Amino acid sequence: MGLFDFFSKEKKESLDKGLEKSKESFFSKLNRAVVGKSTVDEEVLDELEEVLITSDVGVGTTVKIIRRIEDRVARDKYVNTSELDNILREEIAALLAENKSDDVDDDFSLPVDKKPYVIMVVGVNGVGKTTTIGKLAAQFHKRGYKVVLGAGDTFRAAAVTQLKLWGQRVGVPVIEHGMNTDPSAVAFDAVKKAVDMNADVVIIDTAGRLHTKVNLMNELSKIKRVVQKFLPEAPHEVLLVLDGSTGQNAFIQATEFTKATDVTALAITKLDGTAKGGVVIGISDQFKIPVKYIGVGEKIEDLQTFHKMEFVDSFFKKI
To answer: Where is GTP annotated to bind (predicted)?
Structure first.
């Protein structure tokens, strides 16, 4: 067994374990929906629709999945309820495969032609934004990349302190101006530091507590403008962090943030402590923005790059 196989196996086990609560909840609902039924009929499809919606897959994605299963039932005439698990797995996998923008090429690799690669991280407080930045820094650092962090969430002293602790833990520099300072100045200095030390990647935290969308838009636009003075093509990535355990609220946040700024990638955290893992399926389908990372546990290695087929396989794997 090669090193890659070992890590793949570890990663898969971590994903399986992280989705346990979601799977338990989903399959118990699914089993109740088909109890006493042998074929997939209209009544079962109605029940299935409710199962998917209450599993936080989202209405839009649920409608697509139900339509696909209706077509299949019409085509195959007789579909046994015992086949429903596999049919769901196949149809959800096919649905997600159609969203080509959603594929992540490699685990934590950075483009060689964009250096330093500037990632601006956005999201509301409490979603695990700063922790995700710390884990990302650790994953990049482990792969030999030079990393710089920018503590741009200057509204919260805790966010600055937390990022500094991550910097010490990982062994990467953190640029900070303390609390209640100008976030765009922090971003500028972080990018400047990254250029000066020939770093591969700079990750900039931003405030998660701006009361109106206009405020949020203005703040993020200003950070972008200031960074672009130094590096015209930056930021290369705007990563929105969402808390998977909030279910439908994650959809709402994704909608609001995509209106406020040009989000280019998504990270969905805290999937291990929740039965709402279906939200990843819905968000992956509904937003034409790739889900790049998922958080399935406390450990640094539990921040994983998102692979749709692996996720669907784990979600439908019987416990």
So the answer is: 123-130, 205-209, 269-272
Q: Does 161 belong to an annotated binding site?
A: no
pLDDT tens-digit profile of 283-294? 988 888 889 999
Tokens matching residue 10? 């570890």
User: Average pLDDT, stretch 88-108?
Assistant: 76
Rounding to the nearest 10 degrees, give the CA dihedral for residues 236, 238, 239, 241.
170
CB 280 within 8 A of CB 310: no
127 is in an annotated binding site: yes
The answer on whether 129 is annotated among ligand-binding residues is: yes
pTM: 0.91
Q: Are 121 and 239 in contact (CB under 8 A)?
A: yes
Residue 199 assigned as binding residue: no
**Which domains does the chain carry?**
1-98 (1.20.120.140), 117-307 (3.40.50.300)
Specify the residue for token string 């934590």: 108
Does the annotation flag 209 for ligand binding?
yes
Strand locations in 124-276 (E): 147-150, 174-175, 201-205, 237-243, 265-269
Flag whether 212 is marked binding: no
Q: Give per-residue pLDDT as tens, 65-96.
A: 999 999 988 888 777 888 888 899 999 988 88
Residue type, 12: K
Assign 258 to helix, strand or coil. Answer: helix
